[in-house]
Amino acid sequence: MKKTHLLYCLPFLFLLNCKEEKKDTLSEAQSPEVNQVEKTNSLTTTKIDSAQVPAALKYKGNFKDGFRWKDKTGEYAVITSETGVYINENFPHENDGSDAEVFAQCYSLENNQLVWKVNDFVKDCMVDIDAEFKKNTLAVTDLDKNGIAEVWMMYKMACKGDVSPSDLKIIMYEGKQKFAMRGETKIQTGMENHGKPVFAGGSYTFDKAFQQGPKEFRDYAEALWNKNMKD
Q1: Is there a domain that residue 68 lies in?
Q2: 174 lies in a domain?
Q3: Cα-Cα-Cα-Cα dihedral of 112, 178, 89, 164, to 10°?
Q4: Virtual CA dihedral for 80, 85, 89, 95, nearest 10 degrees?
Q5: Long-range contacts of 78-84 (CB under 8 A, 24+ apart)
Q6: How many independent structural domains does the chain possess?
């Protein structure tokens, strides 16, 4: 009787073991990977670092962030970079101040041609300079599901010697159309008598393109702003 019972149990144990192994294999396959390619029905995007920028694509300053993507219009790459504080000899300097610039450049990967470029700067500044992209705000989306990517970036600019808000901007391109959201960073300026913090800044305005564009664009921009507006 014991031998018969054992023979009946063996197939059951084998099947149970197979199911456990299958479950583990599926779990490993679904785990996220670093720099994983993201896909939607109309868009494929890949985050890139400085070593993955094609040699033919030029940029100024220090590499900050980058993406490659493919949509229905072709294959592209965007690179953001910053100069830090330096002297740009092409800028007029009446006060012997310093300069700082930010850049974003979009290239077609089919012919390595520049599609659009963003260049903003602080020049001839005698006090503290800020010209930098907000961390992890470069993004490529297709919010309106039209098969054409939207490219988002957010950066702050300032030349100031006091505690005050900095200029803050969100720039987005869909194809070659530019959208801009402009305002100020939000900073704490003090405390009320009962311990409640007092803030300044944080306001913004949409340009005409945003105002007339899809609601999805404004919703995304506002969420991005609220998450990153603190100085």
Answers
A1: yes
A2: yes
A3: -140
A4: 140
A5: 78/104, 78/105, 78/106, 78/107, 78/138, 78/140, 78/151, 79/53, 79/103, 79/104, 79/105, 79/107, 80/104, 80/133, 80/138, 80/153, 82/131, 82/132, 82/133, 83/131
A6: 1
Instruction: Give the pair of three-digit tokens for residue 135.
Output: 């961390």
Q: Which three-class secondary structure state does DSSP give residue 21?
A: helix
Q: Per residue of the chain (231 residues), what is the pLDDT tens digit?
A: 444 444 343 343 333 343 333 333 333 333 333 344 566 667 999 999 999 999 999 999 999 999 999 999 999 999 999 999 999 999 999 999 999 999 999 999 999 999 999 999 999 999 999 999 999 999 999 999 999 999 999 999 999 999 899 999 999 999 999 999 999 999 988 888 888 888 899 999 999 999 999 999 999 999 999 999 998
Residues whose CB is less than 8 angstroms from the CB of residue 229 and which lie 6 or more positions away in sequence, other chains included: 168, 183, 185, 186, 201, 202, 204
Find the domain containing 213 and state its range.
39-228
pTM for this prediction:
0.81
**What CA–CA distance (Å, rounded) separates 205 from 80?**
23
The residues facing 158 across adjacent strands are: 130
Please give the single-letter amino acid code of residue 150.
E
Element (H, E) at 179: strand 177-184
In a domain, 27, yes or no: no
Task: For the chain, give percent helix, strand, coil, nearest 5.
Answer: 20, 45, 35
